[in-house]
């Protein structure tokens, strides 16, 4: 696939890295010659210096033969115009734009993105994606990561294995015997910084991060059985009143019994946020101030969510909140090296905005009938939902005969709308959906399993 990426920032770099590693032809465009030089030295990609919205720049990037353009610059308007130019002048088949300003995303303006007006095929809003991830975490206490699949019928859960967990040192193949009537498949384990798809004989160790796939209605029972007995937070403090903080607070205002307070350093932003929210208490002040945190009630809060646009502020605010007595903390952190300090800092959950955006875009880049994708551990593995069609090499075969390589673990099959725990003798039919975890080295093989005829493209 020939892909043009406009924007060589964190997201553009992450996308280029992933797509180039999978043997796609990638050209990246940016106005910064320094960024282009750095990315072309690091990765096997072409670089073009210029504005991604300018036709002549796109021509130099190879737009006439491109299969897709992904515009992820810092300016919404540049991203939107780049897609418009790619469509109107060069008929690029797939156009993806990152749009951050919430005004562009209001449902009343949906006609803006029709083919007659501004034909953008896929609009990615990082703020909304991140906000939804935080809300899922709040609704599923005990899991550090919660991602829906199968139109919400299936949940992918990340759980830290503690000393009181009843399935420690037990081969994974024996675990279902403890969970009679419960759909619970372990598809991934992170141990010593590495993520892998376990074999049936692998045990879980204390300190592992275990990744489960379960029916949505079984999630609460699963978390209770493995020893995570947290209750849903009702007293929440949000530090940072920008797009993400405002989105999360707005959604929480509709939850009965929820008490939300917000700290925002910028006075003008605090006033704007106060106008948009009706039940959230807004405090103007520095989230790194113990006095302001105390005033917000951090010492008795069940969750503090740090969502400013500065990594250091988010980290230090979370550390301070824990010191003051907050039960749990979530921090938005861009820098990868800082994310790796999570356990040392005592932060319960880290949100990586780049990973959220990359995952959103990858689901539209994958060939074949890959319906959804979620990226784990900086691309070390992916959770995928794929639909089996007539031309798939899986059709009509049993799961054990499909030939998935090591590094792939199937967690659920959706057959005629029903979620089924995978069984080696199960016959895969056209129309079935498989939800699985695949290590990085197996992604091409998995993609080929869901391949379609060349006419599809």
Quick summary:
The chain has 457 residues and is α/β, with parallel strands linked by helices. It has helices at residues 10-21, 33-42, 55-60, 76-88, 126-139, 219-225, 243-252, 267-276, 290-296, 311-324, 336-339, 342-345, 353-365, 443-449, and strands at 2-6, 25-30, 46-49, 68-71, 94-98, 122-124, 145-149, 154-160, 184-191, 194-196, 209-215, 235-239, 259-264, 281-284, 303-306, 329-332, 349-351, 370-376, 381-387, 408-415, 418-420, 433-439.
List the helices and strands and how they pair.
Elements: E1 2-6, H1 10-21, E2 25-30, H2 33-42, E3 46-49, H3 55-60, E4 68-71, H4 76-88, E5 94-98, E6 122-124, H5 126-139, E7 145-149, E8 154-160, E9 184-191, E10 194-196, E11 209-215, H6 219-225, E12 235-239, H7 243-252, E13 259-264, H8 267-276, E14 281-284, H9 290-296, E15 303-306, H10 311-324, E16 329-332, H11 336-339, H12 342-345, E17 349-351, H13 353-365, E18 370-376, E19 381-387, E20 408-415, E21 418-420, E22 433-439, H14 443-449
Parallel strand pairs: 1-2, 1-4, 2-3, 4-5, 5-6, 12-13, 12-15, 13-14, 15-16, 16-17
Antiparallel strand pairs: 7-8, 8-11, 9-10, 9-11, 18-19, 19-22, 20-21, 20-22
């Amino acid at each position: 696939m020939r892909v043009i990426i406009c924007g060589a920032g964190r997201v553009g770099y992450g996308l280029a890295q992933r797509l180039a590693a999978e043997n796609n032809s990638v050209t990246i465009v940016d106005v910064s010659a320094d960024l282009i030089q750095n990315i072309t030295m690091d990765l096997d990609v072409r670089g073009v210096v210029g504005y991604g919205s300018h036709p002549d720049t796109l021509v130099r990037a190879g737009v006439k033969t491109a299969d897709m353009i992904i515009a992820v610059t810092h300016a919404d308007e540049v991203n939107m115009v780049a897609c418009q130019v790619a469509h109107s002048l060069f008929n690029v088949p797939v156009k993806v734009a990152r749009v951050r300003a919430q005004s562009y995303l209001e449902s009343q303006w949906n006609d803006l993105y029709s083919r007659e007006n501004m034909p953008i095929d896929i609009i990615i809003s990082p703020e909304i994606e991140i906000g939804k991830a935080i809300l899922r975490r709040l609704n599923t206490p005990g899991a550090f990561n919660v991602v829906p699949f199968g139109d919400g019928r299936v949940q992918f859960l990340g759980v830290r294995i503690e000393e009181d967990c009843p399935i420690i040192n037990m081969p994974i193949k024996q675990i279902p015997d403890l969970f009679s009537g419960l759909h619970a498949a372990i598809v991934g384990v992170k141990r010593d910084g590495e993520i892998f798809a376990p074999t049936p004989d692998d045990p879980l160790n204390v300190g592992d991060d275990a990744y489960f796939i379960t029916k949505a209605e079984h999630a609460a029972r699963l978390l209770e059985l493995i020893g995570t007995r947290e209750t849903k937070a009702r007293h929440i403090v949000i530090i940072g009143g920008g797009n993400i903080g405002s989105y999360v607070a707005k959604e929480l205002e509709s939850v009965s019994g929820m008490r939300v307070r917000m700290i925002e350093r910028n006075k003008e932003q605090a006033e704007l946020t106060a106008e948009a929210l009706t039940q959230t208490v807004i405090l103007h002040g520095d989230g790194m101030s113990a006095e302001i945190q105390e005033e917000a009630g951090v010492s008795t809060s069940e969750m503090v969510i740090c969502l400013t646009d500065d990594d250091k502020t988010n980290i230090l605010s979370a550390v301070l909140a824990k010191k003051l007595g907050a039960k749990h903390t979530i921090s938005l952190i861009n820098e990868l090296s800082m994310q790796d300090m999570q356990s040392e800092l005592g932060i319960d959950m880290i949100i990586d905005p780049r990973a959220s955006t990359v995952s959103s875009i990858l689901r539209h880049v994958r060939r074949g009938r890959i319906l959804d994708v979620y990226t784990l551990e900086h691309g070390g593995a992916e959770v995928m939902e794929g639909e089996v069609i007539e031309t798939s090499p899986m059709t009509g075969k049993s799961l054990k005969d499909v030939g998935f390589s090591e590094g792939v673990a199937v967690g659920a099959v959706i057959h005629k709308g029903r979620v089924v725990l995978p069984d080696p003798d199960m016959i895969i039919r056209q129309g079935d959906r498989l939800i699985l975890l695949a290590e990085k080295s197996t992604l091409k093989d998995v993609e080929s399993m869901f391949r379609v005829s060349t006419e599809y493209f």
